[in-house]
Structure formats: structure tokens, C-alpha cells
Structure prediction request, 386 residues.
Amino acid sequence: MANRFVLNNISYHGSGAIKEIPGEIARRGFKKAFVCSDPDLVKFGVTAKVTDLLDEAGIAWSLYSEIKPNPTIKNVQDGVTAFKESGADMIVTIGGGSSMDTAKAIGIIVENPEFADVVSLEGVADTKNHATFTIAVPTTAGTAAEVTINYVITDPDKVRKFVCVDTNDIPDVAVVDPDMMASMPAGLTAATGMDALTHAIEGYTTRGAWELSDMFHFKAIELISSNLRDAFAEAKSGQPASGREGMALGQYVAGMGFSNVGLGIDHAMAHTLSAHYDTPHGVACAMLLPIAMEFNKPVVAKRLAEVAVAMGVDTAGMSEDEAADAAIAAVKQLSADVNIPATCDGLVESDLDQLATDALNDACYPGNPREATHEQVVELFRKIMA
Ligand SMILES: NC(=O)c1ccc[n+]([C@@H]2O[C@H](COP(=O)([O-])OP(=O)(O)OC[C@H]3O[C@@H](n4cnc5c(N)ncnc54)[C@H](O)[C@@H]3O)[C@@H](O)[C@H]2O)c1
Ligand SMILES: [Fe+2]
Prediction:
């Protein structure tokens, strides 16, 4: 089977990139934007950085912000209703993965109403039409949802998150402006940055990895591991540092890769933790990353040795096995340096059986390079129990 690659039609990068948004809307003749953002971003004036530009350009817009972190089916369905009532003809989504994923699902259902139940979009959805024209503006440096063909929705009744994969959902235009991420507190900078590193490392070791995806993942690992500490320090001190720009780019480059080849057991387990305990996605990914790398080492040692090089480890004189261990150690050190916890609040022994079942059913699991038994996944979860 041929390898497929899907990317945004247009993307803008760098400080001040949001100034391109009004022009992208106006030149296509759209009349009204449906702005999809979350309540905190509205409250802290992050959303307004873009809507002020729309106002200045005389572009009408209406706001939808009923979106919680780890967004739910209801957030999507209410959004579809709000879109129809708004009279808008395009979407501008401003936020982290939660806002962008909700917007992607809304845009898909508006154009493919037979999927209005949302749950039927799980897995590889057979939609006929491309989502409503969307401009995506990330405010975290993590998920890269602005360039991926995935979105993740939570079903609270079934206590599970489900991944939807659909080439029709990729935003048409991505605007990756580090200034939109400048207000992230240190904890969020760390968690979302480690999510991005997880995308890059899982993407580099996933079953479907090939030259084109390797190119993006290797560069993303370099960018993220050399910029996250600075971005974190900047967020803590409030002083400008060089890390934000590199993180904005690094997370996007990771997304260009993993969106096209998939992930693995870390994300499968992380989705399960978030569904059960509302663990922030990046924290869940980060605490599991060295554990997943260790588990996969028997089948991807060579690739992990290359990860060590991308992370700046001097592997000269090391065996492949030693270099792979050095990559795992480098990930642990980076996590510790940005204060990621090593254990998951709420995780108890009696939940392990269900968590392992859910992780093995997650759409990210089949990408993992090594097969895991139910008992092995239980054991992996046990490693992050307090
Ligand atoms: N579509 C994909 O390819 C993909 C990939 C990975 C993760 N995800 C999903 O994305 C979601 C997580 O997204 P996330 O980690 O970006 O966080 P998020 O969107 O859930 O936001 C978390 C919190 O951070 C706040 N926040 C965001 N940007 C901020 C800023 N600039 N300043 C201050 N506060 C800010 C938000 O208001 C929110 O309260 C999860 O549901 C996850 O499953 C999607
Ligand atoms: Fe992720």
C-alpha cells in the first residue's frame, strides 16, 4: 500500500502570524466567523487577540466557548447547534487541543450531518465531505491539532476517550504564533511540551514510521528537547526567553509527522487515564513516556539510540543498548526538570484491569511497535501508581 501524507494547505509561523488571519478570511469572501475557544482563554483575553483583529478588519464573528479540557460529546453537539444558529460560514478555532478538537468535530458534523451522534466518528470515519473551512490557532505548544487529521472526544457515560481519524478534518490554515502561547503558566508549558515530545518519540518508533515521517520526528525531538527547559523557565519567571518560538515550531513539526503515521501504547494508556481521572493529557503522556520506551526497547533499540542523538546525548562509544537507555534517561531528566509528576493521582489497583482493557482498545494502540498482553499493560499502569 502506498504511504499517504496529509498537511495543511497553508500554515503561518512566527511572532505576529495572527495578523494574517483577516486576509485569509476576506480573500475567500467568507461573511462570518464561528470562533471556537474555551472559557478561560476568553476570560484571560487570549481569544481577544484574534477577535480584535477581526473587529479591526470588519469581519463579523460569534463566539462558542462551551468547551472543557478533554472535551465531551455534548460540547461538540452544542457547538453544532450554535454554529447553525450563528449564521457563520467558516470556523476560527483558538485554543489548545480541546478547543481545536471540538472545532474539528463541529466542522465535520456540519458538513456530514449523518454523524451527528459523534460516537460514529470513532476510528477511521467514512465522511464524504471536508469539514467547514477552518483556521486553527494553537495557544498551547503541544497537541499540534492544527495540523493533524485526528481529534479526541470524551464519552463521560462510558468513561472513555475516543480518537477520530479523518483526512477531512485537517484545518485548512494553521496559524502558529508563539505570542498566542505566551500566557501559558509553567505547569501547562511543561505538560503540553512533553505531549509534543511524546508525539515525536512515539511517532519515530511507531509501526508505520518511514523516511518522510522520520524527517519530521527527528527534527521535532531536537527542537523540543533543546527549547522546553527555556520555555518552562520563561513561564515561571515571566521573563522573555528563547524557548517559546522553538516549542511552537517543534510541536507543529511533530504533528506533521505523527498525524500521518500514528502513535503507540503511551497515547493509548494516556487517553484511558484522562477518561478515568481527567488527568491533563500532557501529564498523562509524560509520566508514561519512559515506561513505554522501556517496554518497546527490545524491538526498537536502534531507533531509541537515534532519539538519544536527537536529544543531544553524546552517544560516541556507547553500544546501541546503552544509547537507547541514555534516551530513556534523557526523557526522565527532562520530565523532572520541568516538574512532571511521576505518579498519577486517583489511580488505584482495582481500576487496573479496566484501564488495561480500555488502553488495548484505543485507536493508538495498534501503532505500537511491540504487542502487549493485558497483564503487561496492567504492569505498565502499576508503575505510575502512587
Ligand atoms: N488532535 C490531536 O491530534 C491531538 C493530539 C494530542 C492531544 N489531543 C487532545 O487535546 C486535548 C489537550 O489539549 P491541550 O493539552 O492543548 O490543553 P487544553 O486545550 O485541554 O487546555 C488546557 C487548559 O489550558 C488553558 N490554556 C490553553 N492555552 C492557554 C494559554 N495560552 N494561556 C493560558 N491558559 C491556556 C485552557 O484554557 C485550559 O484550561 C486532549 O483532549 C487531548 O486528547 C489532540
Ligand atoms: Fe498527545
Notes: The longest strand covers residues 90-95.
